[in-house]
Amino acid sequence: MTDAVEEYEAVVVGCGPGGAAAAATLARNGVETLVLERGVDAGSKNVSGGLIYAEESAPYTIDGLFPDFREEATERPVTENVIHNIAGDKVKSFDIGDLHHHDTAWADAVLRRKMDSWLAQQVHERTRETGGGLLTEVHVTGLLRERGEIVGVTTEELDPIKADLVVAADGVNSELARDAGLMDWEDPDEWFQGVKAVVDMEPGVINDRFDVAPDDGAAHLFSGDLFDGVRGGGFLYTNEDSLSIGTVFHLDSIAEEHAEPHELLDSLLTHPLMAQWLGGEYDEREYSAKLVPDSKKAAHPSPHKDRLVLVGDAAGQMQAQGPIIKGMNHAVTAGALAAEAFADARARNDPSQAGELYEKKLHDEGVMDKLRPTGYKVFGQLGELSPVDDLSNAVADSAVGRFGVRAAAGLLERAYSSPRMVSMIPDTKLPYVTLPTVIAEELGEPVTDENTVSPPDLADRIGDLTYDVGDPHIELVDNSFEASGTAVTACPVSAQDFGGGCYRDETVKTNGSEEHLVSLDTQPCVECGTCAIVADTEWEHPAGGKGVEFKQG
Amino acid sequence: MHTVVMTKGVPDFREGQVSFDEDGHLERGKTPTVMNPNDKHALRAAFQTKVRNGGHVSLMSMGPPGYKEVLQEGMRDVYADDLYLLSDREMGAADTWATAMTVATGLQNLDDQPDLVFAGFKTADGETGHTGPQTCWCLDWPMITHVVSLDIDEDAGTVRAKRLVDGDISEIETVEAPMPCFIVADPEFEPTYRKASHRLNHKDLRDETQERAEEYEDYLTVWDHEDLNLDPDYIGLDGSPTIVSGVDPIPKAPSEREATIIEADDSEALVPILDELTPYAVGD
Predict the structure, then answer these.
(1) Chain A partners of B203 at a C-beta cutoff of 8 Å?
(2) DSSP at A30
(3) Is residue B211 part of a domain?
(4) Closest by alpha carbon to A433, among A233, A140, A201?
(5) Contacts of B200 in chain A (CB under 8 A)
(6) Which of B153, B193, B196 is opposite residue A161, by nearest beta carbon?
(7) What is the predicted ipTM?
(8) Which DSSP state fits A456?
(9) B70-81 b/e with 16+ CB inside 10 Å = b?
(10) Is residue B281 in some structural domain?
(11) What is the DSSP-derived secondary structure letter of residue B250?
(12) Domain named Electron transfer flavoprotein alpha/beta-subunit N-terminal: which ranges (chain B) (predicted)?
């Protein structure tokens, strides 16, 4: 009986678009590639807004790597783009098609379960030919080291595996990136949190209500005063026979305002503007949530160490600037570039150079400048300094500012459509709340439709999700309310005065004194990672195949 | 490596499948026949040897022609490279002894002699647990029962197994035996695949066997007593020393709890109950 350590040329952890692109490119270069995915099926752990873009300037696109992709794995293409500025029931809408079309070959709405499981099938077939293949239900827990050097991965279900290249495409809560010390869970202002409802709707009804052809679709964005001052916005995308409706907010803002994410989503769902599309009947297929890295702050400029390379969300490669939200396309490019770097390094007989080469390619191909745009560095961060921000808000809200908004209506629409302007947007209240609100107040028309939608409550949303409950995967290190209390509101499946969620707060009386504590039950966890940042926890993913299973994603 | 798994078709005793008549007798006509559930553990154990060590897995049964579908079920749900059914009227109504004689002859009739033979722990209908050990006795091989995990050392020609002592999970021993060897898999048997290559192999083989199961008759060999050169006097009913004198239904166990029924409007009858409860009452 031989107990030699198993070895592959490359191990790819995670089979989302980044992992799939890496694996397909490795396989094309004849690299023996093992892909490990922790879900019961690729996509069962994945959530996104979700629009996937193919950029004209990108060296790799998903349909370039997987030719039948749009045919087999996506929903509707986006043919109409509108942003709605909202103040009370007043709405001013701008067509932002120009911004959308800038550098865009195509953009399709996707549901991740369908998309990723299709990709995984392709990936398995291609990598199997190299002597590797794809395995689901394997939770990669960390890095295998020899004399302090990364040489492979450790998993919960398999013996340790060695590899010349480890691609961490294990998502926003990458355990590998944290094990390597490349990413952390420290600062809420480096993250967004998104929640989404997938809503059932007949294809014909979608065509009518959105006034689109059967093979076309719409993308609507929402910002203004409908989210209680929390910085962020909402979106609505049309799928083949459903809608993806969600909200995305800066996590620091959710934390500061003690906002309940599911209630912010409901604020969007129940706004009068939505009545024209939701039409009173409302059948929610799935509620989901996800943490989103803000690449402007979180994208690692040098996402590699030893034999490890980080790809996609794991490296913070998620571009979100005002109305632009692009993640999956960058993950695809990065994954393919990492694979290309390894193939190049191997051809030079020095596979250990793969990481350096990958970093160089990210810069040379312009990926890094998209993730950390210069315009934001110069102007956006300046706008975030508090005196500047206060002043800007005051000016925009003043009579002068309001006059400017009225006078410059056409200009504003153009500004929203300018990629250069958008890249400079600071992460403050001004662009997310103050400006859209002023725009709507000064230029908007009231919406008179009555919205009769009543979204399911949190207990029903949790109840409708599928879980294979395993052992608790999150440990509450400090259960004082001061340290971990924010999780009670910020966790998308917890709420104040709600007993059925993950986090709840309680007052415990001991020997005459009172303690305000937090308790945790990981059973309804949707694995978004919010509490890893806003609370004091030891956070790991559940075992392979355990935990939540998204059917839509 | 050649591995053979013995199996039997049994009535599907699961809720909603099984039918009994008014006298509590099983209605075989109305109850579907399925692969003995315990035999699936044996087949999973054999499949593990295929995944980890390669070779060839055969699934064998003795019974009426309808058992072909039982063999198909095993091929589809677990794994088999090929199927063998020992079947003719002369083999019918056999007890465990005559069955063991027939199956052992079937095993010896294989071109490629097995290194391992697996059986499940008891059938769901007869529950004797005899047929496996008796078959092994006919072969004169070593036997390991109540096996919960298994490793094969092909170079040394040995099999090492963890088994439950006395069939109880509280005590487990590790034993080693030379091959060929007879293995009885315990229902607690859990295949383990800790290598990525094994899991990838498992996936491929599962796909292949499901494809084969669609056309299972192409992989099926049926042997009658003449093919096996068996004397009808030693098989089937004639070869069975067991005489069944009668079958008695097991009476329902009497309830040990006592129940006293009190009418709702009989206030007098409530007094003794209140007296009983008074000592447990708290407060004034």
Answers:
(1) 133, 135
(2) T
(3) yes
(4) A233
(5) 34, 128, 132-133, 135
(6) B196
(7) 0.88
(8) P
(9) bbbbbbbbbbbb
(10) no
(11) P
(12) 23-215
CB-CB neighbors (< 8 A) of A161 in chain B: 196
Q: Residue A218 carries which side chain, given as an amino acid letter?
A: A
pLDDT the model gives residue A1: 44
Contact check, Cβ <8 Å, B203/A135 = yes
Domain total in chain B: 1
The CATH number of the domain holding residue B181 is 3.40.50.620
Assigned domain for B134 exists = yes
Give dist(CA A388, CA A401) in Å, integer. 15
pLDDT digits (tens), chain A, 553 positions = 456 899 999 999 999 999 999 999 999 999 999 999 999 999 999 999 989 999 999 999 999 999 999 999 999 999 999 999 999 999 999 999 888 888 999 999 999 999 999 999 999 999 999 999 999 999 999 999 999 999 999 999 999 999 999 999 999 999 999 999 999 988 999 999 999 999 999 999 999 999 999 999 999 999 999 998 999 999 999 999 999 999 999 999 999 999 999 999 999 999 999 999 998 789 999 999 999 999 999 999 999 999 999 999 999 999 987 778 899 999 999 999 999 999 999 999 999 999 999 999 999 999 999 999 887 777 777 677 777 777 777 777 777 777 777 777 777 777 777 777 677 777 778 788 888 898 999 999 999 999 999 999 999 999 999 999 989 999 999 999 999 999 999 999 999 999 999 999 999 888 888 899 999 999 999 999 999 999 999 999 999 999 999 999 9
| A-to-B residue pairs, Cβ atoms closer than 8 angstroms | 29
Whether omega for the bond prior to residue A50 falls within 30 degrees of 0, making it cis, is yes
Contact criterion met (CB < 8 Å) for A133 and B195? no
CB A238 within 8 A of CB A217: yes
Q: In B, residues 149-188, which contact A (CB 8 Å cutoff)?
A: 151, 153
Across the interface, of B153, B197, B204, the residue whose CB is closest to A6 is: B197
The residue segments making up the domain with residue B82 are: 2-234
Number of residues assigned to chain B: 284
User: For residues A281-318, b (16+ Cβ closer than 10 Å) or e, as one string?
Assistant: ebebbbbbbbbbbbbbebbbeebbbbbbbbbbbbbbbb
pLDDT digits (tens, 9 = 90+) for B14-49: 877 888 777 777 777 788 899 999 999 999 999 999
Chain A residue with minimum CA distance to B153: A1
Q: Could you write out the DSSP letters of every residue in A98-151?
A: HHHHTTEEEEEE--HHHHHHHHHHHHHHHHHTTT-EEESS--EEEEEEETTEEE
DSSP summary character for residue A225:
G
Closest CA to A207 of A239, A185, A182, A231: A239
List of residues 6+ apart from A120 with CB closer than 8 A: A15, A20, A35, A37, A41, A42, A43, A134, A136
Whole-number Cα distances in Å, A2 to B133, B154, B155:
32, 11, 11
Q: How many CA atoms lie within 13 A of A496 on its CB side?
A: 10
Residues of B within 8 A of A157 (CB-CB) are: 194
In a domain, B139, yes or no: yes
Pairwise CA distance, residues A143 & A443, whole Å: 55
From A8's Cα to the closest Cα of chain B, the distance in A is 10
pLDDT in tens, B222-252: 999 999 999 989 888 888 888 878 777 777 7
Q: A143 with A176: CB under 8 angstroms?
A: yes
Instruction: Report strand pairing: B9-11 vs B33-35.
Output: antiparallel
3-class secondary structure, B180? coil
User: From CA A371, how far away is CA A315, in angstroms rounded?
Assistant: 11
Distance from CA of A160 to the nearest CA of B (A): 9
| Residue whose token pair is 């719409």 | A218
* Distance between CA atoms of residues A2 and B154, nearest Å: 11
H or E element, residue B59: strand B56-62
